[in-house]
Amino acid sequence: IKDWKTRLSYFLQNSSNSAKMKGKKGGKQHTYFRPSPEEAQLWSEAFDELLASKYGLAAFRAFLKSEYCEENIEFWLACEDFKKTKSPQKLTLKAKKIYNDFIEKEAPKEINIDFQTKNMIAQNIQEATHSCFSAAQKRVYSLMENNSYPRFLESEFYQELCKKPPITRVAQAT
Questions:
Q1: What does pTM read for this prediction?
Q2: Distance, first Cα to last Cα, the chain
Q3: Contact call for residues 129 and 37 (beta carbons, < 8 A)
């Protein structure tokens, strides 16, 4: 668990540092704070609650990395970004990048999807639309929700986040 915590704090520190750099260039500035036990407990109510929290997403991503399956969340996030793309030219470029990174055989971050879905995507990216990765994204989401998410909720790290810190009493001078 110590290695897991180290990875998460490193991830959060780097995310925070890069966000600060972006903030200086006029972009939004994001900082990550340890969530309250109550906020962390909300993540157990629904997988979407976890994904909606910046810290929750970072914690889940670090957990997936510790299980050697972070390509799932990276693919899901890439698809979410892809769906927001307005320009048809950018849509095609992003579709090809997602395909090369996650879908094609021997891709560097190849996700585990069936042959038919891969073929359908290969055909669809020729004329990319916002829905060309929908079937694969749903499969990956389901895989994370039904397999990784329950393990995350059982992890020692998550259990620690849900614990209330002990109340310390300040010694009073008499």
A1: 0.77
A2: 43
A3: no
109 CB contacts (<8 Å, ≥6 apart)? 71, 74, 75, 101, 102
Spatial separation of the C-alpha atoms in residues 23 and 32, rounded to whole Å: 14
CA distance 115 to 122: 11
8 Å CB contact between 153 and 51 = no
- Whether the CB-CB separation of 166 and 48 falls below 8 Å is answered with no
- Cα gap 161→117, rounded to integer Å: 37
Q: Dig out the tokens for 16 from the structure.
A: 């925070």
pLDDT of residue 126 exceeding 70:
yes
Tokens linked to 31: 């900082």
* Domains present along the chain, CATH in parentheses: 36-161 (1.10.167.10)
Cβ within 8 Å of residue 67, ≥6 positions away: 148, 151
Closest to 144 (Cα-Cα) out of 57, 82, 40: 57
Sign of the dihedral defined by the CA atoms of residues 148, 154, 155, 159, in that order? positive
List the structure tokens of 165. 């810190």
By mean pLDDT, which of 11-25, 30-44, 61-75 is the weakest? 11-25
Contact 117, 139 (CB under 8 A): yes
